[in-house]
Amino acid sequence: MIRAPLLDGLSASLPIALGYFPIAFSFGVAATRAGFSAGEAFALSLFIYAGASQFLALALLTSGAPVLVSAFTLIAMNLRHVLYGPALMRAAGQGASTKRAWVWAFGLTDEVFGQALGALARGQRFSERYMFGLGAGAYGSWLAGTAVGAVAGGGALDGWPALGAGLGFMLPALFLALLLSILSRRQVPVIAVAALVTVGGTLWVSATVGILSGMLAGALTGLVRR
Amino acid sequence: MNADLLTVALLAGAANWAFRVLPTRARTDRLAPGGWLERFLAATGPAAIATLFVAAILPALSPDLRALLPVGLGVAAVLGTYLARPSVVLATLAGALAHGLAVWALGPVLS
Question: Given CB atoms, is B84 within the 8 Å cutoff of chain A?
Fold first, then answer.
């Protein structure tokens, strides 16, 4: 990390890149299946760069939801990211530079944050170049996966139902794994309320209402002092 | 290119950039420990991830055992792999692999 932090960051991004590629591929396929062009799918990955939001964006855009409602729904979905920067910099210690954060911190996704925090916990020194390498590897894989999936098109997996099923399960599997990674006794009521309200909202109203009401109810549960 | 899509992508992307970049410069000690904003923000992440998991898995749930078994095996693979080695990426890939293999073994469910 001291000699070539950029390369160290890139090599540390390898497991994330391997996980991102098939998810981004399935996003590219889903986007073209929903009627969007390869360029439009790529633009969503390039600008938003947040898996769950992008899948939701497809649902909102195809359902004809108003532009501002769609945008604010996606924005609300990624609110949790505001916590990552402060947590990372606290672990990096005083004096850690954030001069170039405007470049590398856009890549601070759930997995990149987890990997960076783990590296610091193992005693590595914080380096903006390392963060850039880590984020660039993951971002590059996300963009490449989207492009390949979108170009391959909606019919790409028709002859491969098992592969299509596996890729389709990538997202619930990712969320379950992320849930396990942040699970703590303190957050159990938050998770339980969010899950129950999501089920109720989805079954009785719509998937969009289920997602928004579930998130809000779970976050409000966090206000209850225990 | 669809103008609505581009507008949504740019607005959401700009917010993502702000959410990820600006807090790296924030003084974390300015949030009152245990304050309402700190508790709300701390609960937002778990609530969002739990919501997204439920929203993603709900459409896959079915009373048909042949459709439900691959989902159950996929979930079990995520849990088992994460307990054996707490890696989000490995657990995700194991879940997808188990689900895909189960569909391959059972054959796709025709709706």
Answer: no
